[in-house]
Design goal:
Helices cover 77% and strands 1% of the residues. By secondary structure, the chain is mostly helical. The chain has a two-stranded antiparallel ribbon with strand order 1-2.
Length: 274
């Protein structure tokens, strides 16, 4: 009976929970390739997810009268943010994904620059290891940025294929660099190097998750065949706390929420064979 009383006494909270449930279920269905049919140029699942997200956003902005508390409004705002961020690992439009990837590119550029400058903090031998391990980062970042912008301008199948190839290739470079950095014997140098590479890894992982969200199951399977260094191999060298902090800063969200988002992206990537 308490459940029904809570629904009656807190209708906005209950409605928000229901809408979050719809968006979450839609995300899971999209990841499994279940569409429930077409709706216009998209699918029924995508339509339901979009409508639920939009309604949740409106609900969060609704002051609900003078009796509405600041705490309730804040909670609804966070729920709206959750719904908006679920497409990070769920189905969403190609244009939205391309724009999100482009939005990540300044952070990627900064992270790659930080890797390059880290060499100055290291002993010559360790600096050489870092330079060799990350020598392809600048070119890979430039290519990935260009492919994202191309896809944003014209989200065609050919442009998506190029974007898929670019993001997987960069992910493999990052994974290889993590394995190399782990061999640095000086613990202080190793920590500096791993931290700088982790920043790049976080951005590339975010981009990979976004690209996955607009790729078919067959395309994701094809992408995973290019992934020879799996996440399981580099998992001990990834810093989830650093990744969550970066994602939280990028989206302007709580770190706790970002941590869940990072975990979802990683789980999705591992499940897909990366």
């Amino acid at each position: 009976m308490n459940y029904f009383a809570n629904i009656w006494n807190h209708p906005k909270t209950s409605a928000a929970g229901l809408l979050i449930g719809v968006v979450t279920i839609a995300g899971v269905l999209s990841q499994q390739g279940i569409t429930l049919g077409t709706a216009g140029s998209g699918t029924v699942v995508t339509l339901l997810s979009g409508l639920a997200s939009a309604l949740l956003g409106l609900l969060a902005k609704d002051p609900g009268g003078s009796s509405s508390s600041a705490g309730t409004t804040a909670k609804l705002g966070v729920w709206a943010l959750i719904a908006l961020l679920l497409p990070f690992t769920s189905g969403c439009s190609g244009t939205t994904v391309a724009q999100n990837i482009v939005n990540w590119t300044p952070t990627l550029t900064s992270a790659v620059a930080a890797v390059n400058s880290t060499a100055a903090l290291l002993a010559p031998a360790d600096a050489s290891v870092l330079a060799a391990a990350t020598s392809g980062f600048d070119a890979a970042a430039t290519l990935l940025t260009a492919q994202a912008k191309t896809y944003l301008a014209s989200p065609t199948a050919a442009a998506l294929t190029q974007l898929q190839s670019a993001v997987v290739a960069f992910q493999q470079e990052v994974n290889a660099s993590l394995l190399t950095a782990a061999k640095i014997s000086n613990s202080a140098s190793q920590q500096h190097v791993l931290s700088s590479i982790n920043a790049v890894a976080t951005v590339v992982a975010a981009m990979l998750a976004l690209v996955q969200s607009v790729s078919s199951k067959a395309q994701v399977a094809q992408m995973s065949t290019q992934s020879t260094i799996k996440l399981a191999a580099v998992r001990p060298y990834l810093d989830e706390s650093e990744a969550a902090a970066m994602v939280a800063n990028h989206y302007g969200e709580p770190v706790a929420l970002a941590r869940v988002q990072v975990e979802r992206a990683e789980t999705s990537a591992v499940r897909a064979g990366f």
